[in-house]
What does this fold into?
Amino acid sequence: MPFVLFGTCDSSLSVANQAESLLSENFPGEKSHQAISIFALPTAKVAIEIITGRHTLAQAQKYDCEDSPEQRFSRLSTQCLLTLARLAPFACSDMHLSGVLDGFFKDAVIRKLVKCDASVGTY
It folds into this structure.
């Protein structure tokens, strides 16, 4: 289930739509919200493991030749951050999720991700 939720934030619209369809077909109406709530913590942990490079998905895969390592990292980082943003509202009612998200956003990894490159102009 965490990977279905992770898939809903994929940069490929077809993947995201398939994951959303899977979620809504198996958990119609309010049950979808409940399913997300139940699996929010393990999903957040997977996203954080990927973005910090501790999950096997963070490493180049055998048949993954379309992306450069930098592109793969950028794509997965974006997907992870979107996943965490989707799960953030559930932190109000889940202290464990709140703690995991707080720890992540205080970590140096997130600061490195959002650090602006000197070549990027600021206005």
